[in-house]
Amino acid sequence: MSRTFFVGGNWKMNGDKKGIDEIVDFLTKGPINSSTEVVVGCPQCYLIYTREKLPSNIGVAAQNCYKVAKGAFTGEISPAMIKDCGCEWVILGHSERRNVFGESDQLISEKVGHALDAGLKVIPCIGEKLEERESGKTQEVVFKQLSALLPNIKDWSRVVLAYEPVWAIGTGKTATPDQAQEVHAQLRQWLRDNVGAEVADSTRIIYGGSVTAGSCQELSKTGDIDGFLVGGASLKPDFIQIINARG
Ligand SMILES: O=C(CO)COP(=O)(O)O
């Protein structure tokens, strides 16, 4: 089964209109391999600006949203609002949401369920911390995070699962291709055992954590890494090389 290579950029809380114009400029010039699906996650206040400036072959994601359509939830945005801004995607459960803002597996699962029900495509993120890896708990941790999502995912065709080991995010310590491939294969097997063969074969599992133009090619050659979620390097023209990692 061939899975379309997927490269997401997560701008996090970076950028301003001028910086976005520069990113739009290098993404527009490319050239971008037409067989790679590209999505950029931008700050909420720039969703409309970014959507209007980027070519239509590049998707735009919010970096978070709440679990209901509207109401008295000061500071939150809903999937309906993201769609109303012309965007189709949302990143949910990023490690910074989990670890800086204290989001639980349960809350993230409810957010994923509502975003899917509202018609968005979702990039849920999972990944272990350094101490969890060092104590041999990586598989246990990511399976627990994935299990929590399961009850709220009815349509896997609109899910791209991101494995982002926390120790690799923003640290310059990219997982080796073997380290990443090992977890991706375990996650795919988990999907096979707990959801079904078709979903396991077709769901994109992407890797995030200090991906660079230098590391992307080797990572992309492993069997179960179907793309990347890129932080820092997605703000620079190097992102084009990462998008084109599969050649
Ligand atoms: O968190 C990430 C993407 O969501 C990864 O960030 P870096 O690529 O900056 O390590």
Kindly summarize this structure in a few lines.
It is an enzyme of class 5 (isomerase). The chain has about 250 residues and is of the alpha/beta class. It is globular and about 45 Å long.
Q: Could you name the CATH class?
A: Alpha Beta
Q: What is the 3D form?
A: globular
Architecture per CATH nomenclature, i.e. the level-2 architecture:
Alpha-Beta Barrel
Query: Which fold name is given in CATH as the topology?
Result: TIM Barrel
Can you count the helices? 11
Along the chain, the helix and strand elements come as: EHEHEHEHHEHHEHHEHEH
Q: pLDDT average, as an integer?
A: 97
CATH superfamily: Aldolase class I
Q: How much helical structure, as a percent, in the residues?
A: 25-40%
Number of strands: 8
Number of separate domains: 1
Provide an overview of this structure:
This protein has helices at 17-29, 47-53, 79-84, 95-99, 105-117, 130-134, 138-149, 177-194, 197-202, 216-220, 238-243; strands spanning 5-10, 36-41, 58-62, 89-92, 121-126, 161-163, 205-208, 227-230. It starts with a strand and ends with a helix. Helix 2 (47-53) links the parallel strand 2 (36-41) and strand 3. It is globular, with a radius of gyration of 17 Å. The protein is built from eleven helices and eight strands. With 247 residues, it is α/β, with parallel strands linked by helices. The structure holds 1,3-dihydroxyacetonephosphate. 1,3-dihydroxyacetonephosphate binds at residues 10, 94, 164, 169-170, 208-211, 229-233. Residues 10, 94, 164, 169-170, 208-211, 229-233 line the site of 1,3-dihydroxyacetonephosphate. Belongs to the triosephosphate isomerase family. It comes from Armadillidium nasatum. It is an enzyme of class 5 (isomerase).
